[in-house]
Design goal:
The protein is of the alpha+beta class and 778 residues long. The protein is built from 15 helices and 39 strands.
Length: 778
Amino acid sequence: MNTLRPLLATAICILGVSVFPSDAFSQPETNPSGGLRGIRVDGELLPITTGIRAVPTGESPLGPISGEKLGPAGRLQFTRQGTRVTTSGGVLGVTVPGGARGAPGALGPGVRGPAARGPAPTPVIVLQPEIPALDEVKTRLSLTDQQATQIAPILEEVAKARSGVASAQADNTAFRNEEIAKLTAILNDAQKPQLTQLLVPPGIGNRGGFAGNPGGRGPRGGGGPLNAQIAYDDGGSGLVHASVQVTVGQAAVPMDGTYYFIHLPGPEFAGAKVDLFESEARDKSTPGETKRLRITAAHRQFELNLPEYRKITVTDKPATAIGGGGFDVYFPVTQGNLDAGATASLSFTMKATGDIDNAPVQFTLDPGHPGSPFDGVGGNFRMQGAQDPAQVAYNLANLRVPWARVNLPLDQWQPNENDDLAAGPINAQVVTALQMEQTLAKKGIPIVMTVWAIPRWANGRMEPRPPDSGGPGQGSAYHLDPTKWEEVCQSIVAYLDYAKANYGVDPTYFSFNETDIGYNVLQTPQEQTEEIKQLGAYFAAHGVKAKLFLGDTGDPTGYPFIENTMADPEALKYVGAVSFHSWRGGTDEQFIKWGEDARKLHVPLFVGEGGIDSDASSYQNVLYEPWYSLVEISEYVNICRLAQPQAILHWQLTENYTLLKGGRNGAPLEPAQRFYQLKQLNLTPAGSASLPIKCDRPNLIYAAFAGPTPGAYAVHLINNGAARAATVSGFPAGVKEVRVIVTDATRGMKELDRVPVSNGSAQVTLDSMSYVTLLSGI
């Protein structure tokens, strides 16, 4: 068994981060959870990551990287003023009265964080001891009258039951989970986080998300009585200033201390020399106290500078460690218990330098082996807020939308089992959904209709969501009652018939949303197979043309969920397409697997929800960060090459994950970088065939397509590193020149000079952090 090997310990708590890039430019890239995701040096991102953690009394500061972050997602603040980025939220790691320590999260895209000690605990929801009055709940959550009527008896039931429930947390887990499940079944997505803030105190468990951010869309954990504000500022010439302010709430916090961490990855710092400048220590009798640290590798150097002597610990992790080894550096921001109301403010600098990879790159097309057709990037249209209609109208007017996914609000369509379905919609949410579907149908956009929530009368047994799902991973969800399948099928078909007769809506596909992780219905693989057989047969018998999605899983790791259905010939008669959601990223192998499974079934593949951070609507300012924009389009282009989907349905073309700027206080709506990126990818003509394409350098993202007309080609190239020259070869003899379109932080689909094609090759420049598209015959 390999263990971490402490090299040295040195001092306590003011910290500064500064970064030594080469001379041209530097930029700290900041996660919403308070840590750096890297430092960009002359355009190349050096993956030096940082974070903060509160350590309970008696525990080691060392632990999973995923715990070093602020949270929960609903309380994070992320702002930028010029070159200064500030994040704030609760510090994870301490156990507070009435709360449970957050579970470890993901290490980054496509990697799940392992438990720090032993297996993941059974998810527990801890509710506030006092239930808010109905008027307060109605006001805070903006409930409709019908929702308030439905919630009132549940709140009364909860309040009465609370007085008779034993206080032992383990005995009451199921009861608390049932309370939350009943209430959330009545709410829409915009209301659920607010319900959590009303009923769930700080300190509940959480799952990891994209790049170390809290993930999923269920109630989140962390935060509590200890909060922090962390700011990073680019000082120019490679210098980055950092400041940390820790604030205690109304109750004292028992703990070992609050620590700031810096991670230097093994591949970048293998064999590095560590220098703690002990000769400069103020007191030779206390070795390890120092004001600075330098770690030097063959091609990278990192330096930490503190304004006063502190104890720094450096740990050399073996290559077999999680994340591939490297160096962990940590030191305390505060030590010992913290009194109520206490505040500690710290500042520090870091430097990072290194050799930059700007070597020319070669891309090679293979037009002779076309793959699956690609229609483009569509969108989800689940209407949830007052700003949605204007954003939807702008996007539909200015984007090519080849496919759309919408909400079938089954829980609101038939909230009571004996409702008269012939009477039509009975509340505003259903009408809003139908009107959105009608708008899309009138534009001739094919529709995927999805059920998120089922009515309470259709609920079966309740179970915890899978703790390793990568999605909510916390709390519980209901299975559909198998004795109610006939009634559920009747309700769904009644909605589809009503939508077709009154709104001209006739969906192409139908699905239940993310049932592998229970958002909001929970299914086993066998239950998904039964759902497809029940609904498929009922649809066929009642003249419904819609086929069923297989999967529609919460993230790319969910492909085992579809294997049971793939082995059932009866169920496969009703499967029209395979679908997964791209939250939290995926590995190349996972994306390839999804494409292979769809082709085995001879059906198209869809990305039912495209996105990288499912909590981003909670800290929307991150949506405008250039790094976030580039990571998102990189994922889409990579999926196009590896999985070959028919469409990616972006989550979503409304306000809460907006592609636009403005729209409030009289400001007009304007495209942001992510809008231009989707529009640029959709320059690929609908029905274009995916083409094999190779690259001779790492860390670039690329995909290629042959259009439906002769001579039409689209090549998409994303450079997340330093600027470099590129050669694209393999164009057929008839291609004489290509158009060049670029989107980055300052240019939105800017068309550059055309580039000649000689002997099948074109020479282009890929600027740092740019998305470049080459077009022929388009």
